[in-house]
Amino acid sequence: MAHTAFGEFFPEIAGKETRVVTIIDERKTGLPPGTYGLLELYCTDQDCDCRNVYIQVVREDFPGPIATITYGWESLAYYKKWMGGHESDEILSDFKGPSLAMGARQSQFAAALLCIFREIVQTDKAYTDRLQRHYHMVKGTIKPGKPQ
């Protein structure tokens, strides 16, 4: 499953709709003060309907992603059916809701960023709706047999 940044497909929309988090007080979060960008990456496999987004958390002064978070908005039952019903609920829990992406390099700040992302997802329906809309926009641009 290849994932591509939303901004590669829709740069103008990404410029307006990419979420940022500004940390002012390190004592509350354990994160250095500054602005953190939440870059969205979506699956570009036409035959895949994972209903999931990878969020790479970045800062200008940090080399590479600080954290990579996955977020799936469907039910555990959806992901179990999508994976063919062979997976345990423990494995499926990495698809449902926010979690740190397995196999991705994570910084020492990843767990704190995951906590912040969970709070955003639980309290900002407009943002979660936007992630789903962006998913469908990307999927709508991918043509069968067209390499991405």
Task: Describe what you observe in this structure.
The chain is α+β, with helices and mostly antiparallel strands. It has one domain (3-141). The chain is built from seven helices and six strands, in the order E-H-H-E-H-E-E-E-H-H-E-H-H. Strands 1, 2, 3, 4, 5 and 6 form a six-stranded antiparallel beta sheet that branches. Strand 3 and strand 4 form a beta hairpin.
Write the layout of secondary structure elements.
Blueprint: E1 3-5, H1 6-9, H2 11-17, E2 19-23, H3 26-29, E3 34-43, E4 52-58, E5 67-72, H4 76-82, H5 89-92, E6 97-100, H6 110-123, H7 125-141
How much strand? 15-25%
Q: Report the span from N to C terminus.
A: 11 Å
- The rounded Rg comes to 16 Å
Q: Structural class, from helix and strand content?
A: alpha+beta
- State the order of secondary-structure elements, H for helix, E for strand: EHHEHEEEHHEHH
**Average pLDDT score:** 90
Number of β-strand runs: 6
Helix share, percent: 25-40%
The number of helical elements comes to 7
Please outline the major beta sheet: 6 strands, antiparallel
Whole-number total of structural domains: 1
Question: What are the low-pLDDT stretches, counting only 5+ consecutive residues below 50?
Answer: none
Which geometry do the CA atoms define? globular
